[in-house]
Design a protein that fits this description.
Elements: H1 2-11, H2 14-29, E1 41-46, E2 49-50, E3 53-54, E4 61-67, E5 74-78, H3 92-96, E6 100-105, H4 121-134, E7 140-145, H5 147-158, E8 163-169, H6 183-199, H7 213-224, H8 231-237, E9 242-247, H9 255-264, E10 268-273, H10 283-298, E11 308-311, H11 332-345, H12 347-359, H13 365-390, H14 398-401, H15 406-418, H16 420-428, H17 434-444, H18 448-485, H19 489-508, H20 512-523, H21 533-536, H22 541-550, H23 574-578, E12 589-592, H24 597-611, E13 617-621, E14 631-633, H25 636-645, E15 650-654, E16 660-667, E17 676-684, E18 687-689, H26 696-702, H27 710-717, E19 730-732, E20 744-747, H28 754-764, E21 772-779, H29 782-786, E22 792-797, H30 813-836, H31 844-856
Parallel strand pairs: 5-6, 5-7, 7-8, 8-9, 9-10, 10-11
Antiparallel strand pairs: 1-4, 2-3, 4-6, 12-15, 13-14, 13-15, 16-17, 16-21, 17-20, 18-19, 21-22
Length: 865
């Protein structure tokens, strides 16, 4: 295979391609002998026709037809587009026993002349009348299939005295039934189709394998040369018996069009089958058509009878199909624009919605598919242009920088230049890859035309597949929703939402990382420790409200720690709280105020010199929560980068290597001489082991726990996530002992001893006004820790801290809420007792103002945090 590829690359070039295209065009241009009619076919020549009459300057046109002969009344069968007289092979024998049946290949189709000046239905009608003249046929019954119905109408308009009756099967007619209903838009569609089906294939060296150019040309010109706008008035003026046959599930000519034809025609009868547009091609279908046509031809209608027959199914109550709304209330151009705009918000949701609306007959298939395609292709070009115009300035946007590490950008850009086609097409079918790949190819790719071309091919392939697949499967999918919710918009919207979710599930399942993401999302339903905080606290809010009523104040909790602003509710300085504790148990920390990064770095260096500290050192916001912005700084360059990214006051703290950390939740009832340990959290930092084969990102997604917080880890790792660690190599994924930063919390009450409780109580009573909160402590030796000797306090949190051992995955959800209820009951009790002792709580509006201020200016979390 590799040898074949090398030979192919050696000989293939644009010159080879050009030669092949020219040879293909030459082969297709070679004259071919005119087809000789089959045994049951005949051929005559007539003058070339235009929609307004004969064309004396054009060459005669060959018409090929079949004729059963005989002295019976004549029935002329007119096929659709594309088609031929062969469409009626199964119907002709059923009619020939009673009638002389003539079926012809209309010019441009079958074996008749392929190159004619006019392919429209008006010119076709003149060709049929000319054939009748040549065969000396004075009168005939005419049956039109699809496009042939329009030809039959023009015949009745041009020579009504020569037409005995008309029969439509799946017939065209009113302009509103042609695709979008707009003449201008439909001809824009045909012009585009001509380019795609006739012109574009000639740029490929297909040597005629895609079919003769003449047939493709005739097919598209037939639509382009046809004007259906006059047909409505023709049907209204029609004074001939008309039999309208139509399939309930016709995808090309909607059933409501047949009802409109029946309403417009004064002498018509409508028969509706449980069939599609192509019932004619089967033996059973042809027989059903003959069973309706033969009685009609024997006894044509002399006046209106208003009859509508349903064959093969029971009609739904009132004739609801008669009153279907127009397809495009806003017009096809506006509809297409709305769909294109929708893809910029969500490609999947817009394509699914389009497919469902197409299934329901609410929009034209071309409007839907082309609108989605334009939006998708435009969106792809916008992503590429963002990368090309803004370059690496885009990486200042944190949301994007998390998804585009520098190393990944470099690899994608260079890979794009080598494998543009397969990369773009693969990314179109692989969710989650387009954003990074398209922007990076814009930043680094050196061959923009490749992206323009291959993204066009990818969008052109992807869009019809998705939209038409949804439309095809939509009937069976929507039916249950319509059964329970009704057949209106509610059932359709419910089906769209559920369909969107299913598509997302399928897309996620295409890749290993996607499947891991899906498992993480699903398992989050029962792994309550990873629930959003707002959701997790919903059952606690009624308990807090009840306690507030009991103690006649919600703000009374702020009196639990009178020495801490607002009791440690929010916005307190970490350094100010630590300064109230015994220095021998607190790691050294200093505050670096906001200002110029260089000035702040000099201040840090001065503090480190005075204390004899060296790197690494911990930098974190002085006002912060849940580990946001905490970083272990390994070098002066890291410190400078941190100051450049964090403008708020920063706490610089001595680093304690641990390797252990505990969260000790303490309380002391006012008036009592000693306090108690309420709970202990034994913190386990996430460690990842390499296998020498997978990247860090892949290892994270493969881990059953780490995948639950993969976004946090990957944002912190940056381009390191693309590294493949050696087998057995251990990587620490988190440094801050916070659950939301990836640390596993276990119940550590087994660590509590009388000595530890006494040591913590002594430290807490160093500040007599501290009664409630959590100490975060690092230690090196578990035995000394339990003796109360190895305690290095890194933080003290006030009234809004938690007994975080409740997040132990071995605990039940009920146990977690029981712990929270006890904690909040203690907090209100302590606050009320301190209020009784003369400590005034903060006002509720002060708590609210502080909370809003903190939420308005949260600590920044950088990629390296």
């Amino acid at each position: 295979m590799s040898r074949f590829k090398s030979i192919f690359k050696r000989f293939w070039s644009w010159k080879t391609y050009l030669v092949l295209v020219l040879l293909s065009a030459l082969v297709q241009s070679l004259p071919s002998a005119a087809p000789s009619p089959a045994a049951d076919e005949r051929m005559i020549e007539v003058a070339a026709q235009l929609d307004h009459g004969a064309s004396p300057s054009a060459a005669p046109v060959r018409l090929v037809y079949s004729d059963t002969g005989g002295d019976h009344d004549v029935v002329i069968l007119l096929h659709g587009s594309p088609g031929s007289a062969g469409n009626f092979d199964r119907l002709i024998p059923l009619l020939a026993s009673r009638y002389r049946v003539i079926a012809l290949d209309l010019p441009g189709f079958g074996d008749s002349s392929h190159w004619v000046p006019d392919y429209g239905i008006a010119a076709h009608a003149r060709y049929v009348l000319a054939l009748m003249d040549e065969l000396h046929i004075q009168r005939a019954h005419v049956m039109g299939f699809s496009m042939g119905s329009g030809v039959a109408l023009h015949m009745a308009e041009l020579a009504p005295q020569r037409i005995d009756s008309l029969t439509f099967y799946g017939g065209i007619g009113i302009q509103e039934g042609e695709g979008s209903g707009s003449y201008g838009f439909e001809h824009f569609k045909y012009a585009l189709g001509y380019g795609l089906l006739v012109v574009a294939p000639e740029a490929l060296p297909h040597f005629g394998l895609l079919g003769p150019r003449s047939r493709r040309h005739a097919f598209m010109r037939n639509f382009w040369d046809t004007d259906q706008r006059p047909l409505r008035s023709m049907i209204e003026r029609l004074d001939k018996p008309l039999l309208i046959l139509h399939g309930r599930d016709d995808p090309l000519v909607p059933l409501w069009v047949a009802f409109e034809h029946h309403r417009l025609s004064p002498r018509s009868r409508l028969v509706v089958y449980d069939a599609s547009h192509f019932m004619l091609f089967g033996e059973a279908g042809a027989q059903r058509i003959a069973d309706a046509v033969l009685p009609f031809l024997a006894h044509p209608l002399h006046e209106a009878d208003g009859l509508v027959r349903y064959i093969g199914f029971v009609p739904p109550g009132k004739p609801w199909l008669e009153s279907l709304p127009p397809k495009h209330v806003a017009g096809p151009w506006t509809t297409m624009g709305l769909l294109a705009a929708g893809t910029l918000v969500s490609e999947d949701l817009t394509c699914i919605t389009t497919g469902m609306l197409l299934r329901a007959g609410r929009i034209d298939w071309f409007v839907g598919i082309f609108g989605c395609f334009c939006g998708i292709y435009f969106g792809d070009l916008c992503l590429w242009s963002m990368g090309r115009i803004f370059g690496r300035r885009l990486l200042r946007w944190r949301w994007l920088a998390r998804r585009l590490p520098e190393a990944r950008l470099q690899r994608m850009g260079h890979w794009f230049d080598r494998h543009a086609g397969k990369a773009i097409i693969a990314s179109r079918f692989m969710p989650g890859t387009r954003l990074a790949f398209y922007i990076s190819s814009g930043m680094l790719g050196r061959k923009p035309w490749r992206f323009v071309f291959w993204s066009f091919i990818a969008a052109l392939s992807w869009t019809p597949i998705v939209v038409l697949l949804v439309a095809w499967l939509g009937e069976s999918f929507v039916r249950p929703f319509e059964k329970f919710l009704g057949g209106g918009w509610i059932g359709l919207l419910a089906a769209i939402v559920v369909g969107y979710l299913l598509v997302r599930v399928v897309e996620q399942s295409l890749t290993a990382i996607g499947r891991a993401r899906l498992r993480a999302k699903v398992s989050r339903l029962w792994r309550w420790e990873f629930w959003p905080m707002g959701l997790f606290y919903v059952p606690v809010l009624p308990w807090i409200a009840l306690l507030a009523v009991r103690y006649r104040s919600l703000a009374v909790i702020s009196a639990a720690n009178p020495a801490i602003p607002l009791g440690g509710f929010v916005g307190e300085s970490k350094l100010d709280i630590l300064a109230r504790l015994p220095a021998e148990h607190v790691l050294f920390a200093c505050r670096i105020e906001g200002g110029e990064p260089a000035v702040r770095f000099d201040a840090l260096r001065q503090h480190m010199l005075e204390q004899g500290l060296d790197y690494p050192i911990v930098l974190k916001p002085d006002v912060g929560e849940r580990g946001a912005g905490v970083r272990l700084v390994q070098s002066p360059a890291d410190a400078q980068a941190y100051f450049a990214a964090h403008a708020e006051p920063v706490l610089a703290q001595q680093f304690h290597p641990g390797p252990y950390e505990a969260g000790i939740f303490y309380y002391r009832i006012p008036g009592e001489t000693r306090g108690r340990i309420f709970a202990v959290t034994d913190k386990h930092f996430p460690l990842l082991s390499g296998d020498g084969r997978h990247t860090i990102e892949e290892l994270i997604w493969r881990h059953p726990r780490y995948r639950m917080q993969a976004g946090t880890f990957l944002a912190r790792l940056g381009d390191q996530a693309e590294r493949v660690p050696a087998a057995g190599q251990t990587l620490r994924l988190a440094m801050a002992g916070n659950h939301c930063q990836g640390t596993l919390f276990r119940d550590g009450m087994h660590l509590v001893t009388p000595e530890l409780e006494a040591a913590i109580d002594a430290i807490a009573r160093h500040d007599p006004d501290f009664h409630f909160g959590r100490f975060d402590v690092r230690y090196s030796d578990p035995a000394r820790f339990q003796q109360g000797l190895d305690l290095a306090i890194i933080e003290l949190n006030g009234i809004t801290s938690e007994a975080t051992s409740l997040y132990d995955p071995n605990h039940s959800l009920l146990s977690a809420y029981r712990t929270l209820y006890r904690q909040w009951a203690l907090l209100f009790r302590i606050g009320a007792l301190n209020r009784r002792r003369g400590h005034q709580p903060a006002k509720l509006r002060d708590l609210w103002r502080a909370l809003r201020q903190h939420r308005r200016n949260p600590p920044v979390t950088t990629l390296a945090d």
